[in-house]
């Protein structure tokens, strides 16, 4: 498998509009962060996308991705789904809609907000055939498991993708560590984990919580994502354990 970090930034990205870099060095390219999303590619060349960030078009172009075989959503917050229209070119040339998956609440909200994506409109084809995660066990040869995570007053979905003995966990936008999360991610080879800033936050993991989660589940490697403007890449690299990597846009990790 190969995973690409398409976007590693918080909801406003880095820099924020107004050219606000905060504590991040603008001369370090890995500090320029778009909104979070990942792509996973199997050895057979099939590819899944997790979340459709508002920066999806530029992410797909930057990483030379012109086809996906399935799409997942963690939740319906704008920074995770408002690039959904950029799936339209990925529908071209397909015999049918792109398979899509999310929990029942997210499915309902996405259908209401982007009805044309899931039902077609004015003669345009349906772009995504969306379904609940409840009946899903495998996609593109990958085993799929999931659980809900507290995200302040709402929930976000954590995913684990297994291919033989190798596994990738994706847990972004959570504010506490639950038993379900620990059970899901236990022993995963790579854990991509929410890490907004150093100080505690009401809806996101901070650095201490992210490192605690990775240690608790005994992840072989962890990658920090959803980083805000206080998290300078080089400074943060010097703070984390050797098996923890600071994520950046375009980062590729293979197995």
TrEMBL record:
CDD domains assigned to the protein according to its UniProt record, in alphabetical order: metallo-hydrolase-like_MBL-fold
InterPro entries, per the entry: Metallo-B-lactamas, RibonucZ/Hydroxyglut_hydro
Domain (Metallo-beta-lactamase): residue spans on this chain: 34-226
Domain of life: Bacteria
Gene3D superfamilies referenced in this protein's UniProt entry, alphabetically: Ribonuclease Z/Hydroxyacylglutathione hydrolase-like
Record protein name field: Phosphoribosyl 1,2-cyclic phosphodiesterase
């Amino acid at each position: 498998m190969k995973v690409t970090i398409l976007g590693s930034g918080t909801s406003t990205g880095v820099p924020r509009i107004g050219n606000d870099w905060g504590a991040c060095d603008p001369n370090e390219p890995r500090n320029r962060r778009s909104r979070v999303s990942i792509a996973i590619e199997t050895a057979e060349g099939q590819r899944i996308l997790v979340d459709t960030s508002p920066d999806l078009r530029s992410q797909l172009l930057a990483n030379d991705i012109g086809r996906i075989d399935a799409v997942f959503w963690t939740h319906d917050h704008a920074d995770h789904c408002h690039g959904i229209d950029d799936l339209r070119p990925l529908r071209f040339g397909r015999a049918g809609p792109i398979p899509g998956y999310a929990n029942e609440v997210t499915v309902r909200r996405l259908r209401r907000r982007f009805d044309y994506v899931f039902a077609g409109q004015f003669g345009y084809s349906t772009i995504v055939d969306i379904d609940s995660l409840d009946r899903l066990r495998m996609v593109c040869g990958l085993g799929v498991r999931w659980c809900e995570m507290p995200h302040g007053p709402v929930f976000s979905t954590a995913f684990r993708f297994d291919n033989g003995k190798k596994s990738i966990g994706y847990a972004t936008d959570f504010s506490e560590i639950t038993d379900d999360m620990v059970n899901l991610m236990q022993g995963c080879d790579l854990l991509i984990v929410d890490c907004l800033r150093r100080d505690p936050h009401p809806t996101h993991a901070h650095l201490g919580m992210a490192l605690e989660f990775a240690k608790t589940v005994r992840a072989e490697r962890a990658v920090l994502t959803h980083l805000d403007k206080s998290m300078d890449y080089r400074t943060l690299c010097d703070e984390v354990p050797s098996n923890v990597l600071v994520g950046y846009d375009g980062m590729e990790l293979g197995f």
